[in-house]
Amino acid sequence: MSNPSIFSSIDAYIARCIMLSEADYAYFHSQLSVKNYKKKSRLLSAGEVCTFEGFINKGCCRVYYLNANGNEVDLYFGIEEWWVSDLASFSQQKPSNLFIETLEDTELIFISYEAKERLFKKIPSFDRMFRLMVQRTHETLMKRLLSTYSEPAEERYLAFVNRYPAIVQRVPQHLIAAYLGITPEFLSKIRSKLKSKNK
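The structure corresponding to this sequence follows.
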């Protein structure tokens, strides 16, 4: 039995982490839901319990929170083959402090808390796959935190460009500036300076 094409990307992602039979994939697919969202759709708001882990099949999302001054602080951006969720809220089923929003028209493959529990019972090897996903998210956030406190703005921008070249082309510059902890004007100066160096 062939896998539906809509699940080809998530199946490829899983295949890099664990080995499954055709029957395992079929059961996995039965536990998923697919939803399409327009640009600037809100998937999660602070105060809500996060009920999903979402695999980005197509599109781009951002995960952010509001600081004490009410300003938006981006934690990370996600594009194809990234997962978006509030893992703490999802795993503990407690209200979230985060917001998740689409930056483009986006297609997400969702797994709910209940479906994930059923999946672990039916196919225990999925525990490894989701642990690897959590590890990747943790590493991303730690790199961002260390960069923010240890590198000058220009180095932070260059590291971001080198690490996420596809995201740079798809995320508005003012959001990248906010992610780096600088103003849009300062980011423009950095970009101009780098262009001059490369001439």
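The mean pLDDT is 89.
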